[in-house]
TrEMBL record:
Protein name: Heme A synthase
EC class name: oxidoreductase
Bilayer disposition of the protein: Multi-pass membrane protein
Regions that span the bilayer: 12-32, 94-112, 124-142, 157-175, 195-216, 258-275, 287-309, 315-332
Domain of life from the UniProt record: Bacteria
Main location group: membrane
Associated pathway: Porphyrin-containing compound metabolism; heme A biosynthesis; heme A from heme O: step 1/1
UniProt record similarity statement: Belongs to the COX15/CtaA family. Type 2 subfamily.
Cofactor(s) listed: heme b
Length: 339
């Protein structure tokens, strides 16, 4: 007999979302330690096994030496130094494969057991497809740094991070829908205000990825001004003008600084409205995380992009997405029941 298990599936999705959060943090460390180009081949199966002896390590190192990052940036690095950057990229890739299995295998089990409630199979398959696509996006990003410029393209980095957070948001939303289903409530819907808030937050995160990819955080290590002014003097403008908010490190840092306040205002309003209309703990988490994120953003600049501060800044951004999606979900189902 078919027995839907929405609570069990929701718990599984939350666990996968937690793994995606860890993946985002490891990805941030990989970027900030300049480790992302240490593995120059994409081997989805055999790449799970790292070099196991000195001969294999030397072969991997020799492969790395054939590419621009070694030739233009790291020429003369030792094998032990190479092992240090290899570790983070290897961990990032293996964790991605583990997340794929942690999603696909339980999905297959729930499917065979006919435990998935009606209407949720297409959404779960879409999340699985997004996860597979994310692996391809990751290699597409890495490949951009293996040609001439020894750095990944910042726009591809933004796509990679954005896709990870879309997956995170989708997992959290679906888990909350399933939890509501177990209580006999209808699925939530995205309100217009929630869409606006999440879109503004997404733009802020994309700008943050541009800052990271362009190393724009080093342009001005001061706050709130830049070079003693709201907008710094002597900026070399790119043509056409729209490119500056994507490719100009100074303009990108300026936009990330000030767009943050628009995102913060909308997140506060989302939190207040959700608390008033549906309650729950998510609104308080949004306010707590938002406060921490503002402090960490300023600290990232003032410390010259210190590794531990910058990683914490990215980690809190992912948690803020989780909490904001939870708020949006609560706002979209204020006490409605299934009929």
């Amino acid at each position: 007999m078919t027995t839907a298990r929405p609570r069990a599936i929701a718990l599984w999705l939350y666990a996968v979302a937690a793994l995606v959060f860890v993946m985002v943090v490891v990805g941030g460390i990989t970027r900030l330690t300049e480790s992302g180009l240490s593995m120059v081949r994409w081997e989805p199966i055999s790449g799970v096994v790292p070099p196991l002896n000195e001969a294999e390590w030397h072969a991997e190192f020799e492969a790395y030496k054939a590419y621009p990052e070694y030739q233009k940036v790291n020429r003369g690095m030792s094998l032990s130094e190479f092992k240090a950057i290899f570790f983070w990229e290897y961990l990032h890739r293996v964790l991605g494969r583990f997340i794929g299995l942690a999603f696909a295998l339980p999905l297959a089990w729930f499917w065979v057991r006919r435990a998935i409630p009606e209407g949720y199979k297409p959404r779960l398959l879409a999340l699985l497809a997004l996860g597979a696509l994310q692996g391809a996006i990751g290699w597409w990003m890495v490949a951009s740094g293996l040609v001439d410029r020894p750095d990944v393209a910042h726009d591809r980095l933004a796509v990679h991070l954005g896709a990870a957070l879309v997956i995170l948001g989708g997992l959290v939303w679906t888990a909350r829908d399933l939890t509501a289903h177990a209580r006999g409530e209808v699925r939530s819907r995205l309100t217009g205000f929630s869409v606006l808030t999440l879109l503004v937050l997404a733009i802020q995160i994309v700008l943050g990825a541009f800052v990271a990819g362009l190393n724009a955080g080093h342009a001005f290590a001061e706050w709130p001004l830049m070079g003693g002014r709201v907008f710094p003097e002597g900026v070399e403008w790119l043509e056409p003008l729209w490119r500056n908010v994507i490719d100009n490190p100074v303009v990108v840092q300026w936009a990330h600084r000030w767009w943050a306040w628009i995102a913060a205002l909308l997140l506060v309003l989302l939190s207040v409205r959700t608390a008033r209309e549906s309650g729950g703990g998510a609104p308080r988490f949004v306010l707590l995380l938002l406060t921490a994120q503002i402090i960490l953003g300023i600290a990232t600049l003032l410390t010259g992009v210190a590794l531990h501060v910058a990683v914490a800044h990215q980690a809190v951004a992912a948690l803020l997405v989780w909490a904001a999606v939870s708020c949006a979900h609560g706002l979209g189902r204020p006490g409605r029941r299934m009929r």
